[in-house]
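Folds abound. Consider this:
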Amino acid sequence: MSKENAYVMTYTGKMFNPFYPDENLICVEDIAHALSMQCRYNGHMNKFYSVAEHSIDVVLVLRMLGLSPRTQLLGLLHDASEAYLSDIPAPIKQCFPEYKKLEDTLSMVIYNKLHPLCGELSVNDFYYVNIVDKEIAILESRKLMRVADWNNRETSFNITFHCRESNEAKEMYLRLYRTLLEEIIYEQTRN
């Protein structure tokens, strides 16, 4: 099969080609649904913990740290490309530079479509999301995988993992997306 014909059918019935992403076919409902059905760490967890819930937790920590709704929305969407490509463990992903390029390109198309301030995102926004994402990964490994090696690594915060059912994580993701959009719009009207 060629890249030109590499379509996947989404939850809402769209035919989407991640190699040639059409921004008009991207919708938050597909992303929330798919991420809520995917378990982190390729399923090697003690409990089901979805990529959607992970993304929600990233937002909650960014909010706790006092970062802007703009940065929080980036945090919610930081793994959105996995709705179309699936989650691949980071050590394996690093061995496939073409995959990483595809993921990065798709992520930018998703940000353009779903983040109203995409053009205003800064290196700092990405930096804060990346730091929180990495620290949450340490906590996930420690608490949800019980990997002893992770106990030695410090984090600047601690959180409780709820391991929600997929439908609950999906609804929370969608609510949080709408809330962050409203907060961004409100913030823009104040400035």
Q: What stands out?
A: Residues 3-190 form a domain with the Hypothetical protein af1432 fold (CATH 1.10.3210.10).
